[in-house]
């Protein structure tokens, strides 16, 4: 971006943004964000910073000292950062988890874009959650963000199925439209989401029943089936769902769109964000790392 364009947007030209986490060396965020900055000719840099567990406060102090334009936050710092920022957006407050830090004048604001990124990835496939019944398999951090986001986007019924019942109850308590489900809820849902790590890193060609998050015979051809896993991109679960005739949505869309929403927060509502370039960069980075 030119200095004049930056002044119009009240941004100093050439800022630094970063992802903090540990480990962070294999994060796809630098490739995805650099692709977006490059496609929009925005003069920002983006780096990955390994911040050891327990030292999130120092990372925020560095953000204040060096006036980073924005931070992406990944494991293990999402909850710690939620306690350290000046303000939280509604999703981050509900989840007690932050994946994005931005400036509002001299205050640091924590946001959570993962769940909204998932909803945006569905929208990209012409799937609306407004009025939908959603079954979510899993109750970890990713599942929690999806439960919160689909409820905010108008899902009328969200059922949570998880191996550990206590975590399912905690996750279902996030929203008034969510409850702990039973296996038959998969059959009656409009949208089924695998938010577990079951199937991650598994070659679909050699997958066993244990590599599927639930029994695919419960699926109907008119359902939408999503997987948050993006390594491999077409999981065994998505493959079985496609064989049945379901519409499938892979996990890379969520990764790309949560990053696009971060860019929107950092750069402002009128910023041009090229999600196709971001997805191509993520795909290339996965191939380079041997994950595809
Ligand atoms: P997490 O907090 O560790 O939660 C893992 C979930 O998987 C829990 O519900 C856990 O059940 C379940 N699980 C693990 N092994 C299982 C097994 N053998 N059988 C049944 N359930 C099992 O992890 P997370 O951060 O939520 O991530 C979950 C998945 O989402 C990962 O594959 C991750 O790569 C993916 N993800 C994708 C994106 C994206 O942008 N696309 C973003 C975040 C995460 P218990 O509660 O019973 O342990």
Description of the molecule:
A 6-stranded mixed beta sheet has the order 2-1-3-5-6-4, sandwiched between helices. Strands 9-8-7-10-11-12 form a 6-stranded parallel beta sheet, with helices on both faces. Helix 2 packs antiparallel against helix 12 (275-288), helix 6 packs across helix 11 (252-267) and helix 11 crosses helix 12 (275-288). It has helices at 3-8, 29-39, 56-66, 78-84, 90-95, 114-124, 141-152, 165-172, 185-188, 236-244, 252-267, 275-288; strands spanning 16-21, 45-50, 70-73, 87-88, 100-104, 107-111, 133-137, 157-161, 178-180, 191-194, 224-227, 247-249. The chain has 12 helices and 12 strands. It is of the alpha/beta class and 292 residues long. The longest helix is centred in the last third of the chain and has 16 residues, at 252-267. The structure holds NADP nicotinamide-adenine-dinucleotide phosphate (NAP).
Overview in brief:
The protein is an alpha/beta fold and 292 residues long. It has twelve helices and twelve strands.
Strand order of the largest sheet: 2-1-3-5-6-4
Q: What is the 3D shape?
A: globular
Strand content: 15-25%
Radius of gyration: 19 Å
Query: Distance N terminus to C terminus?
Result: 33 Å
Ligand types: NADP nicotinamide-adenine-dinucleotide phosphate
Secondary-structure blueprint:
Layout: H1 3-8, E1 16-21, H2 29-39, E2 45-50, H3 56-66, E3 70-73, H4 78-84, E4 87-88, H5 90-95, E5 100-104, E6 107-111, H6 114-124, E7 133-137, H7 141-152, E8 157-161, H8 165-172, E9 178-180, H9 185-188, E10 191-194, E11 224-227, H10 236-244, E12 247-249, H11 252-267, H12 275-288
Parallel strand pairs: 1-2, 1-3, 4-6, 7-8, 7-10, 8-9, 10-11, 11-12
Antiparallel strand pairs: 3-5, 5-6
Bound molecules: NADP nicotinamide-adenine-dinucleotide phosphate.
NADP nicotinamide-adenine-dinucleotide phosphate binds next to helix 7 and helix 11.
């Amino acid at each position: 971006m030119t200095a004049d364009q930056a002044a119009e947007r009240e941004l100093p030209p050439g800022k630094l943004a970063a992802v903090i986490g540990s480990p962070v060396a294999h994060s796809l965020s630098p490739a995805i964000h650099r692709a977006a900055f490059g496609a929009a000719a925005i003069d920002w840099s983006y780096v990955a910073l390994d911040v050891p567990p327990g030292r999130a406060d120092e990372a925020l102090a560095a953000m204040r000292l060096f006036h980073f334009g924005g931070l992406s936050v990944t494991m293990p710092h999402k909850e710690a950062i939620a306690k350290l920022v000046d303000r939280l957006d509604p999703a981050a407050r509900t989840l007690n988890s932050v994946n994005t830090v931005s400036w509002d004048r001299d205050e640091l604001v924590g946001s959570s874009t993962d769940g909204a990124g998932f909803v945006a990835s569905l929208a990209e496939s012409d799937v609306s959650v407004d009025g939908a019944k959603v079954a979510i398999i899993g109750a970890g951090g990713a599942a929690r963000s999806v439960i919160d986001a689909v409820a905010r986007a108008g899902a009328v019924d969200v059922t949570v199925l998880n191996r550990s019942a206590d975590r399912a109850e905690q996750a279902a308590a996030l929203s008034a439209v969510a409850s702990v489900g039973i296996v038959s809820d998969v059959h009656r849902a409009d949208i089924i989401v695998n938010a577990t790590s079951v199937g991650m890193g598994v070659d679909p060609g050699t997958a066993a029943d244990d590599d599927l998050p639930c029994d695919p015979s419960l699926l109907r051809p008119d359902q939408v089936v999503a997987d948050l896993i993006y390594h491999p991109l077409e999981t065994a679960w998505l493959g079985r769902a496609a064989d049945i005739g379901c519409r499938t949505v892979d996990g890379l869309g969520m990764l790309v769109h949560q990053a696009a929403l971060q860019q929107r927060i950092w750069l402002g509502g009128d910023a041009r964000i090229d999600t196709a370039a971001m997805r191509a960069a993520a795909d290339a980075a996965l191939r380079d790392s041997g994950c595809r």
